[in-house]
Amino acid sequence: QRYQEYFVPKLIQAGAIPKKDLIDGEYYIGTHRCTHIAKWNKNLNVFQYWKWEFFPIWDDCNHFEDDDGYALFVPIRIATEEEYKINQEIK
Fold first, then answer.
1. Which residues contact 4 (CB under 8 A, 6 or more apart)?
2. Are residues 63 and 24 in contact, defined by beta-carbon separation less than 8 angstroms?
3. For the segment 2-44, what is each residue's pLDDT rounded down to a tens digit?
4. With CB atoms 3.0 to 4.6 Å apart as the test, which of 17, 41, 42, 70 could cross-link to 75 if both were Cys?
5. How far apart are the first and last CA of the chain?
């Protein structure tokens, strides 16, 4: 409850994008323990990103408003096409 009432509004005030403003299929620059770019999947209600575990795999994580006890993605802005391409080349 404290997280929802205090931290979520503070993140939004600091510039994080609220879940209601996300665009399905769009890539976002943000913060997460494993990535800095992730794709919003509205149907699954998660961010998806490439994770490296001996080989690259798709992984999911929640938006910061949906804390489930695991690492959350905090989107800051929409990624440019160039940023997305650079991210894919790294993989």
1. 65, 67
2. no
3. 888 999 999 999 999 999 999 999 999 999 998 999 999 999 9
4. 17
5. 38
